[in-house]
Structure formats: structure tokens, C-alpha cells
């Protein structure tokens, strides 16, 4: 890609990533975890790219979480190791998990049912490797404080972070009393963006969305809108004065339908245009209308660019086979995510 | 792929296509158009694959509609021609359109604004080719009776089909009176599934969803649920008796969020289980609950398969990088769609 090429020359809809913001978000999280003295195990499920994984792991390519085996294989194929598959062992994927456990130094799976343990034991590993479950040896305890997503503001986030930490540590104490010592890991981008001191007593944390953040995280209070590193660029392609609407070239194939009904501005925040609402989307079209008043079409000529800040970045970047990466509007290259299960 | 491999051995969530149903849906549409004496120009936007395009065009690889230039290039690269880009000419894509017009025998673009005509004229074609717009020569008129999607039943569909046909033919008469003779094309899967006689006076029709169909089309009345050729296979991965719910391994990365609130059974119809509702989805998890009563967990052991019929096939297949194709449950191979804009 010609580095002189401007962001505004991209065919739309285009998913663009602000590299400086990703780096800043990553550095802050790394620093936060260092200050706490807790191991950071970043989740890959939002971006699913090698480049962002390098940034989030500080270049170590070690100690990551994935949500699919497609991700696990993708990262394993590119020299990543110490991969935790954060999904209660699916019975159709035991063989693929075993293959990963045999080729990596460390591949961790989650169990949430005795039947899952039976499934593992039925598939012994080659070369003298062991699932670290026989004889009930537990590697660790993993929790996701998903209820932070109902929080509004730092105080509420930290209350949930505290509660999850307390419950996890109490559980660790019970395990210890029963003679089991193991690791502990909790996660969620909100709680790791505003950690409480007691999280220092955990072994690991595993946030994921924070590399990109999104409008949802800004509403929760994990970040400000300025920290959000991703945008969907779209163009005005139609004027519909009879409906007081604009048509844009971004439909649900460019921006997720996730977040319906959550924002006064519809499916996204339209940067620099707080009075515009992304009302609805079909496959390749979006309908935009003013929250109040009549549209001034002179401000939105055909072909002009609008910038959408996604409600949920995990869901919106999932619609794009490629992300365009820039620094201060100068295109640097493309990131290609992995897909599938 | 081993042809003996069973559908039930696929890792889930998996998008599966019933080849026999696709062929039957395609044959019926071809026959319907032949009987009417109207040219069928199938839309590729639902499936975006070569294999399905071959079936829908009866192997001719001619006379198709696409919704993106990614599709246009994909089909042009594989020997398809006479491609209509059914999108009002986007100003950022004039150069890409021109390149397609220069390499294909026939590449058609839509104009809905005088400014778009200016954009074309500013980019003359090479080798003596002409945009067939200079001197205001019009190739045709294109309409999409999207309001058929509000219909319920054949009578309502045909009323809209009749209205759209009448309006289009009246417009053609006006053009003729002004000395302009050109083609006419209307579309939508509902109206083309139940055409009215007067559609014979049009040049072309351009339905798209009918190769796969979906629950939405069955609700409209375009087809029956038995005609729907696509499914998402998913597995039970958790029992949550405290919530009277099951967890399945299909979230919004396997099934579109489109259709929220439209069906009593949630985001899909769960085949063979009319009392189950797909209540909500996160990235890789779905929550299923009974419409009434308590779940009998014995009927849904961990690892067992459930089959989702998507509300909107265009949106759900868009979440899958590959489709698994079968005949009567025997896996035949994979189809790989194109993506992007």
C-alpha cells in the first residue's frame, strides 16, 4: 500500500484502526497490570489479528486467550504459545484441542462439567504429555465478570470487580483448604480498565476489548470515546428529502446490528455529527436521520465521508475481511483477521 | 473432504447447505421465468459463491446481479459476464467500475442522480468503449419491490408485484413517448416466487434470496419452511437449570442478529423443537429457553446437535467463511463465498 495514500481515498465501507490509540490502550493495560503485579493474558477475540496480538502481548507472543480453535490454530501457526482456549470444552473439538496440546508448549482448556473431564481422559496425549487433569490436578480457575457490562461509571465497575475478586479469592481459599493450589484469572475489559487493589492477589487477568474499545465501553465507563481505536468509514450515497433522511453505503455487512435500541444515535455514534442517528440498515445501505429538525443536505453532499464509531467493536470488525491501519490519518497497511470456528 | 463424512461430525457452529433444495429452488425459478417469457438475472448477494451462481444461472455464467464490486470482480475473475452492479453508482468506485466495464463484454451500473452521470463522463473508457449514457441513451430501468417484505401470503405479494409492474410499465410508456426505448427489470424474491402475468411485459427480473430462502421468506409466503436450503448446526454446550436455559455454541458470529423480535422462537426456528426459543446471543454463545414450561434436560445432552433455520439467510451466511454442502445429509464439499466491498 502506498503510504502516501489518504484514508479518505479508501473504498467504503472501510474498517479503519488508529494504530497510535491501539498502542496507547495496550501500553496502559500492560502498565496497569505491572503496577498491580498481575500477569496480563490478553484476549484475541475482538481483533483476531497477528499485528494486534503482537501489540497486546508487548511482542512476547506468549500468554493469550482465544475464543475459537480457528484463532488458536492461527496463533499457533505463527509462533504464539501459552494459549488458553476460553470456552468450556466442546465435545466436538476434543481432537483439535488434543492436537494443539501436542504441538504447543502450553495449551489450556476450560472444563465446567465432569463429562468434559471424561472426554479429555478418553483422548490421551502423545509423547508422554498429560492433560493436567488426571488425578484432579487443576491448573487454575477462570471467571469472567460479564456483569460489569451493566455498570455505568468507575464506581459501579469497581464494585463488581471487587465482588468478583472476593468471590474468586474465597473460592481459592476453599480449594487451598482442600489441598489444591492453582492459578486464578478473572477478566472483562471494564474491570481490568479500572482494577481494584485486591486483583493483585489473582494470578492473571484476561481482558480483550480494550485494544480497540468501542461506544459500549465508553458508556460503561471503561474508556472515553477518544480512546476508541476503530471506525467504520462510510459515504453519503443518497438524499431522501421526502423522508428527511440520508442514505449511506454502510449496512449490516459493514457494521454489526448489535446495540439496537441502546443509543440515541442508533447503531453507532456518527463522529462530529451528534444530531445524526443511524436509524436502520439493510445489507449494503444505512438510513441516517436527524435526531431533531430538518437535514441540511448541503452539509452532506453525495460522496462525502461520514465516520461511524461502532457500538460493539468485536461485532463490527467481525464484518470486515480486512482492517485498514493508520497513524494520524496516514495509511500504514492492512491487518487480516482470522475467521471461523 | 471424505464423502462418507457425516454432517453430524462437523465442528459447530457450521453453515450447511442442502444442495438438492438449492437446485430445486433454482429450477423452479428458471421454469417460472421461462413460462413468463422474461429473462432471469439472479442476484448473487445472498450466497456470493461460484457454485451457487452456476446453479442459479443454469451453468451459463451470464446475466447476474451483484451488490458489491468485490462480488463483481470475483465473478469476472471466474469467467462470468453480463454483470449488473445493482447499487447507485458510488463516487469512490467509479475507477473500479470503469476497469470492469473495460474487461467485460457487459458491465452495467445504476444511476439515480445527474451527478452520477457527471462522474461517469469524467472517466472515459479505453479501447473505444462507451458508457452507454452519453447522449442520454438509457440501457434500462431497474426497480426493487422491497415493500413485498411487508406482505403476508401470496395475495398480498401479488398485489405488490402487480403494482410495481404497473408503475414500471407506465414509466416505460412515458419513456417511449419521449422517444426512449430500453429494458426494464424488477425484482425481489417474494414477487418473483409468485409472479403476476403482466411481469411478462418486463425485460428481466432479478430475485436473489430464493436459492437459499429463509424463515423470513416463509413468513412472507414466498416459500414454505421445507424449501429453506440453509441451516446452522449448533451443539448444546451447557445446562443452566437455575435459568431454565440451555447454552449452545452458536452466537452472533454464527447466526445474524437480524430478525430480533420478529419470531416467537427468537433469532431462528429450531428445527424439530417448536417449543424452543433462541433468546439471545453473545459472540460464541446462544441462550435457548422453552417458550413455555420447564426444560427436560434429558432431551438435550451436552454435545447434542440442534439445527437452526436462520431468520435471514443473507445475513447469517455472511457470518461464515465457508458453507458445508450436503445431499440428504451426506457431505459433498465446501463452498467459499467472497466478502468485502
From TrEMBL, chains A, B:
<dbReference type="GO" id="GO:0008721">
    <property type="term" value="F:D-serine ammonia-lyase activity"/>
</dbReference>
<dbReference type="InterPro" id="IPR026956">
    <property type="entry name" value="D-ser_dehydrat-like_dom"/>
</dbReference>
<dbReference type="InterPro" id="IPR051466">
    <property type="entry name" value="D-amino_acid_metab_enzyme"/>
</dbReference>
<dbReference type="GO" id="GO:0036088">
    <property type="term" value="P:D-serine catabolic process"/>
</dbReference>
<protein>
    <submittedName>
        <fullName>Zgc:162816</fullName>
    </submittedName>
</protein>
<dbReference type="Pfam" id="PF14031">
    <property type="entry name" value="D-ser_dehydrat"/>
</dbReference>
<feature type="domain" description="D-serine dehydratase-like">
    <location>
        <begin position="229"/>
        <end position="327"/>
    </location>
</feature>
<dbReference type="InterPro" id="IPR029066">
    <property type="entry name" value="PLP-binding_barrel"/>
</dbReference>
<dbReference type="InterPro" id="IPR042208">
    <property type="entry name" value="D-ser_dehydrat-like_sf"/>
</dbReference>
Amino acid at each position: 500500500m502506498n503510504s502516501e495514500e489518504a484514508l479518505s481515498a479508501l473504498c467504503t465501507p472501510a474498517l479503519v484502526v488508529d494504530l497510535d490509540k491501539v498502542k496507547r490502550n495496550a501500553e496502559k493495560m500492560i502498565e496497569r497490570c505491572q503496577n498491580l503485579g498481575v500477569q496480563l493474558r490478553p484476549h484475541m477475540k475482538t481483533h483476531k489479528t497477528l499485528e494486534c496480538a503482537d501489540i497486546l502481548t508487548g511482542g512476547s507472543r506468549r500468554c493469550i486467550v482465544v475464543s475459537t480453535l480457528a484463532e488458536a490454530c492461527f496463533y499457533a501457526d505463527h509462533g504464539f504459545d501459552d494459549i488458553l482456549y476460553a470456552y468450556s470444552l466442546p465435545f466436538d473439538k476434543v481432537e483439535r484441542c488434543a492436537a494443539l496440546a501436542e504441538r504447543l508448549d502450553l495449551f489450556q482448556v476450560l472444563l465446567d462439567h465432569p463429562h468434559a473431564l471424561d472426554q479429555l481422559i478418553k483422548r490421551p496425549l502423545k509423547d508422554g504429555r498429560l492433560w493436567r487433569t488426571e488425578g484432579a490436578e487443576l491448573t487454575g480457575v477462570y471467571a469472567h465478570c460479564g456483569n460489569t457490562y451493566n455498570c455505568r461509571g468507575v464506581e459501579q465497575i469497581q464494585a463488581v470487580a471487587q465482588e468478583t475478586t472476593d468471590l474468586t479469592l474465597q473460592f481459592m481459599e476453599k480449594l487451598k483448604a482442600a489441598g489444591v493450589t492453582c492459578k486464578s484469572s478473572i477478566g472483562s475489559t471494564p474491570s481490568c480498565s479500572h482494577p481494584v487493589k485486591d486483583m493483585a492477589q489473582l494470578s492473571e487477568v484476561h481482558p480483550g476489548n480494550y485494544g480497540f474499545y468501542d461506544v459500549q465501553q465508553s458508556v460503561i465507563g471503561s474508556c472515553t470515546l477518544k480512546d476508541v481505536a476503530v471506525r467504520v468509514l462510510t459515504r453519503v450515497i443518497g438524499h431522501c428529502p421526502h423522508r428527511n433522511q440520508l442514505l449511506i453505503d454502510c449496512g449490516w455487512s459493514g457494521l454489526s446490528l448489535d446495540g439496537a435500541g441502546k443509543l440515541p444515535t442508533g447503531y453507532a455514534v456518527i463522529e462530529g455529527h451528534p444530531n445524526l442517528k443511524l436509524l436502520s440498515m439493510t445489507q449494503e445501505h444505512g438510513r441516517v436521520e436527524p435526531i431533531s429538525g430538518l437535514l441540511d443536505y448541503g452539509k452532506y453532499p453525495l460522496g462525502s465521508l461520514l465516520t461511524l464509531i461502532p457500538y460493539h467493536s468485536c461485532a463490527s470488525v467481525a464484518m470486515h475481511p480486512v482492517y485498514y491501519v493508520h497513524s494520524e490519518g496516514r495509511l500504514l497497511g492492512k491487518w487480516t483477521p482470522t475467521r471461523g470456528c
